[in-house]
Write a structure and sequence with these properties.
Layout (H helix, E strand, L loop, with lengths): L1 H18 L20 E6 L5 E5 L2 E5 L4 E4 L14 E6 L5 E5 L4 E5 L4 E5 L11 E6 L5 E5 L4 E6 L6 E6 L11 E6 L5 E5 L2 E5 L7 E3 L17 E4 L2 E4 L1
Antiparallel strand pairs: 1-2, 2-3, 3-4, 5-6, 6-7, 7-8, 9-10, 10-11, 11-12, 13-14, 14-15, 15-16, 17-18
Length: 239
């Protein structure tokens, strides 16, 4: 009798294990299926349902059936300085923002299939080493650099044209070398958390309000660094 009960318990455990297996189907896509490179750095589904893959050798769009590759080749008009794309984001207007291996940023329009370097070659900050892209809820895009402050990018909702402002000690707009983080609060104010205090941009203004910053007139230029923040009700906590 004990053997039968043990057999019954063992059988039930086996049935439960089999039933607990996930009901899924795996499909493997590689360069043999049209993917431009097998090292994928980012995956994104855009607002139109297309899948995008950023790789070590180009950007790929997948419609569920085939891949289309975008990368700089001899003779084509794609203005990428490096085909390795490490970061990829979609903004509220349907543009893709790409950070390449050589620390350059491009805005890609899936409708026209045109790449645009941001900032443009004749704009301030175009030679800066960009390390990250931050998309804020209101539509503003910030480009954070290694040691050249940050670049604020605004998209016109009518024409999609870009305007940029470079916030750094070099330009005089804000006395910081490194911007660690940016944050848009519930009132629409944009905060810069830097190696030299806080900067708050009020909507419609170019010059930020400064908090805890050290100026050139003081004995030391080493200000208070801020790295993180959290908004709770009518308060914002800064760390």
């Amino acid at each position: 009798m004990a053997k039968r009960i043990l057999y019954l318990i063992t059988s039930l455990m086996y049935v439960w294990t089999v039933c607990a297996q996930p009901d899924c189907f795996l499909t493997h896509y590689s360069s043999e299926d049209g993917l431009s490179q097998n090292t994928v750095m980012g995956i994104l589904q855009d607002s139109r349902g297309n899948m995008w893959f950023s790789t070590w050798d180009g950007l790929n769009r997948f419609d569920g059936y085939t891949f289309k590759t975008y990368k700089a080749r001899l003779g084509n008009q794609i203005a990428l300085t490096n085909n390795r794309i490490d970061r990829m984001y979609e903004d509220r207007y349907g543009f893709l923002w790409l950070l390449t291996y050589d620390n350059r940023v491009y805005r890609f329009d899936p409708r026209t299939e045109i790449f645009e370097q941001v900032p443009s070659g004749n704009a301030g900050g175009s030679a800066a080493t960009i390390t990250s892209i931050k998309l804020l809820p209101g539509g503003v895009v910030w480009l954070l650099t290694e040691k050249e402050g940050a670049i604020r990018v605004v998209t016109s909702p009518d024409t999609y044209r870009l305007t940029t402002e470079w916030y750094a000690a070099e330009t005089g707009l804000f006395p910081a070398v490194r911007v660690h983080e940016v944050y848009e609060d519930l009132s629409g104010h944009e905060w810069m958390l830097t190696d030299n205090g806080l900067g708050m941009l009020v909507s419609g203004r170019k010059t930020p309000v400064s908090f805890f910053t050290e100026t050139a007139e003081k004995e030391t230029k080493d200000g208070q660094p801020f790295y993180t923040c959290l908004e709770q009700g009518d308060e914002i906590l800064f760390g």
